[in-house]
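Quick one from the shared queue. A colleague (R.T.) flagged Transcription antitermination factor NusB as missing a structural entry in our internal table.

Convert sequence to structure tokens.
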Amino acid sequence: MPARPQRTSKAPARRRRVDLPRQAALEVLVAVRADEAYTNLVLPATLARHGLSGRDAGFVTELASGTIRRQGTYDAIIAACSERPLAKVQAKVLDVLRLGTHQLLAMRVPDHAAISATVDLARDRVGAGAAGFVNAVLRKVAAHDLDTWIGQVSTEATFASVAHSHPAWVVERLAQALGPARDELDDLLAADNLSPRVTLVARPGLAERDELIAAGAEPLPYSPYAAALPGGNPGEVVAVAEGRAGVQDEGSQLVALGLAQAVLGGPDLNWLDLCAGPGGKAALLAALAGGRGARVLAVERQPHRAGLVAKATAASRTGLRGVVCADGTRPAWPADSFDRVLVDAPCSGLGALRRRPEARWRRQPSDLDALVPLQHALLDSALASVRPGGLVLYATCSPVLAETADVVNGALERHPGAVLEDLSGTGALAGIPDAAGPLPGTIQLWPHRHGTDAMFLALLRRTEPA
């Protein structure tokens, strides 16, 4: 009986397992791009879904957040290394390339490991053809370091935008906002690309800052209630878990303190937060008001954000009059009803790019066409809602002049019975260095100077009936 011929076909190559942290980072990028998710919200959910913690969680956080911050820089480099225009590269493939480029140019990942793991990710998530393309591009990226690449893909006119990964129009608006300090522009843009520490607030009457310090947080210089965690999950701090403390940037704390600590004559019982969502400032105001026998009405137009306000203020009931879902530009209360009013207006958010890195790629100059009229309308509503002699604090997390000085000047022109007060000597705001705003008496905080978001604050007093 003749021998059976031996089979010569090879068994299919075994597919290499995709690295889970890199897979999670890609999921974050896709959610931010395709679903318009927010990095700081989708990231914790993704880590929890995959059961990632410790070093793996830190790796995913840096890989995803760093890639989104540096997207503009990396796109310029990838374009120089690709034979295809970026517009013709599949969106998910571009996400993968950005992740690989960040590992090669900004993380302590060996080149061979960064390329190999990213190619495996492309093969698993997109296909073999994409893997070959990714491999070819990343090998070219690995030929130079980040500084060399920036020098090659930028010009004198585009250097700030490319080097610091900000759209050109954002660079222009921030430069205008710096005014005479325009030479600080590079420092400001660089600060936007630094990962901010988690800042906590100890809500007065409910928690002491010493309790946060005992939990490992470090006191911050300007707000007496602020402390920063060096790392870890803030939800593991007991006071945060119980709602007696919260996560809140020091600049945002100073907004609430600026209103609460300003000198006011006459009755001081009724406070209004006109744009309260998601509730951090309302919670601090309610805690401050409760200790003085006053109460805060928190108003938020969007129902889901009103729910966040209710949750944030749940522990401050003694200082809370209620949470109302209403349009702040159409007051559901009589005129002259409040002693203090906060207008933390919806804005471009260009002062908080450290915490919301995706905002720089979503915002467009045309967004100001809708935001600025809304800011004017809200400030008009606030001045109508406050009693004669009462105070209105207008704030934005944007330093853009169209959203700050121009809005305040417009209100002063429309309301002859309103005057601009000096905030520079008010409570916690007194003595903050280099914080002069674009109008006399206003405050402008900066990430590169103060380690806070770029909050703008202006205090107006209504001196006579409207």
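The CA atoms of residues 275 and 300 lie 5 Å apart.
The longest strand covers residues 386-396.
Added to the table.
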